[in-house]
Amino acid sequence: VTEIEEDVKARAAPKLWNYYAEVSFGATQNNNVNSISKRRLQDSGSDNIIAFNSPMFDRTFTGGLGLTASRTIGAASAFSIIANFTDSEQDVETSDDAESYSLTFSLDTTVGNQSLSPYLIGSKTDNKDDATAFSFMYGIGGSFPAGDRSTYSYGYAYTDSKNNRNTTDTTADETNAISHGFTLGHDFLLNEIISFSTGLGYTDSDSKVDAGNDAESYDLNFRMNFNFPWAYVSVGDGLTWNDYKKEDTSVSNTLRSDVVNAFDIILVKAVGELIPILDPKNEISMTLGYEKTISEANIKNYDYISDSYSISFSKSFHLNK
User: Fold this and answer.
1) What is the C-alpha separation between 30 and 310, in angstroms, rounded?
2) Confidence band (pLDDT; 50, 70, 90) for 7?
3) Is the dihedral of CA 268, 286, 127, 58 positive or negative?
4) Which pLDDT score, from 0 to 100, does residue 49 have?
5) In DSSP terms, which residues pair with 308 in a beta bridge?
6) Mean pLDDT of 284-303
7) What is the CA 310 to chain-centroid distance, rounded?
8) pLDDT at 43 over 90
9) CA nearest 175: which of 134, 123, 119?
10) Which runs of consecutive H residues, i.e. helices, occur in the chain?
11) What percent of the chain has pLDDT above 70?
12) Quick one: residue 136, left, alpha or beta (phi over 0 = left, psi -120 to 50 = alpha)?
């Protein structure tokens, strides 16, 4: 009887819809939360120089809930609906206190040797000390293999971001912007443990108020991944060149231009491998992160060094097994 039951289960049709939930929480220690310039000075209109006295050190705590509904379409496609909620609380200041909501619709499919993923994302951020922000994005990502070890990827994204103008922030809508972004990437699998990624990107942003907001950005990034038996480790380094199109005379008469170098290390490990009694099935994922950002700019305000440390925990649940 047991053998017959197992055979019936094996032949049962797979579920068309699958539902998942993920809960997470984490903390970040930031050693330059307000991007204070290296000399603690800043330009303030007509190239006047004043002190940059905002706090540097702060901690941010986050909690998140994600819900996913996924449906198979044919043999090689899947449609997903993802809803996310994140709550962020800052310790010393409140500029990062916010509640964020997002809803994503995506389709994963194949056409020939191309894997294609069109998507549509809407999001809202309720900031405690700032205007409410809205974002609407759609785009497509694609990839195709080249031999047994290489994969090339590409993508395009259109973003329309808006900020509510209210009595406490009468200039929030000045940064309302429409942007177009393009990416190219290459992934190379050296062996079962080591892999490499290289990426290029270009973004053109057109804001409501051009001065100090309109910019073109160029990205170059590298990443090395180690899939060790004891943990997953990823090391990345990226460069971004920002060229602004019009001077912001409220800050400086100089046309802003800067380059930002961001370095990060990420380690992912199951909690159960460290403390089996807390996670006997290795279902809780722990992520440790370090990030260092160095910005070199021709305006003092944006010439800074910042680093941060983070830890987060997450667990996923299959709701309709």
Assistant:
1) 9
2) low
3) negative
4) 78
5) 30, 291
6) 94
7) 14
8) no
9) 134
10) 2-11
11) 93
12) beta
For residue 301 the two structure tokens come to 């305000």
In angstroms, the CA 179 to CA 205 distance is 4
Q: What is the pLDDT of residue 44?
A: 72
- Taking alpha carbons only, the member of 265, 314, 316, 311 closest to residue 285 is 314
Nearest to 177 by CA among 141, 203, 156: 203
Given CA atoms 48, 51, 54, 57 in this order, what sign does their dihedral have? positive
147, amino acid identity = G
120-134 tens-digit pLDDT? 999 999 888 777 889
- In a 3-state reduction of DSSP, which class is residue 99? strand
- Encoded tokens for 288: 């440790």
CA distance 58 to 308: 10
Residue 254 has what pLDDT? 87
Q: What is the pLDDT of residues 215-274, one digit of tens each?
A: 999 999 999 999 999 999 999 999 999 999 998 888 888 899 999 999 999 999 999 999
Residue pair 260/228 in contact by the 8 Å Cβ criterion: no
CB neighbour class for 23 (10 Å; exposed up to 12, middle 13-18, buried from 19): middle
28, amino acid identity: T
* Residue 141 near residue 108, CB atoms below 8 Å: no
Q: Which tokens belong to 262? A: 């961001």
- Beta partners for 126? 99
pLDDT at residue 29 greater than cutoff 70: yes
Calculate the dihedral angle through the C-alpha atoms of 97, 258, 136, 126, rounding to the nearest 10 degrees: 10
Position of tokens 């909620």?
A: 85
